[in-house]
Amino acid sequence: MTETDCAATKTILLVEDDDVVRQLTAEVLGEFGYCVHALRDGPSALELLHTAQHFDLLMSDIGLPGMDGRELVAAARQLRPTLPVLFASGYNERELLEEVRARDSAAATDSIVKPYDLQLLEQRLSELAG
User: Fold this and answer.
1) Closest by Cα among 1, 2, 103, 82 to 44
2) Helix (H, G, I), strand (E, B), or coil: what is residue 91?
3) pLDDT tens-digit map of 94-125
4) From 2.60.40.1730, 3.40.50.2300, 3.40.50.2000, 3.40.720.10, which CATH number describes the 2-129 domain?
5) d(Cα 82, Cα 65) in Å, to the nearest integer?
6) Model pTM?
7) For the segment 3-41, what is each residue's pLDDT rounded down to a tens digit?
């Protein structure tokens, strides 16, 4: 697990299977002022969500091996029903996003396409995590 400086007031759980993308994204999120717990897969993220650790947002790749991002979010919402989610994908996943939003209206959900536009990423995070 990669963890940025956690003196920040908002904490993000980042799930990304690509090592380089995960490290770079965690670094950017840290520069935005967030505390980041960066993991490579859904099961590891669920383990952390079972703890008392507070998270303001879950940012997950959709195309994770094994447990994909949609399955991760469904399981995460069983544990933390109001946890905001930002999906990340190399593809425009608007249909999937609409499906998740329709099923899961209790928590804010959005998506962003990789490679990230950093201004847009910062804006989406601010809107979701406050």
Assistant:
1) 1
2) coil
3) 666 676 666 666 678 888 888 889 999 999 99
4) 3.40.50.2300
5) 25
6) 0.88
7) 555 766 899 999 999 999 999 999 999 999 999 999 999
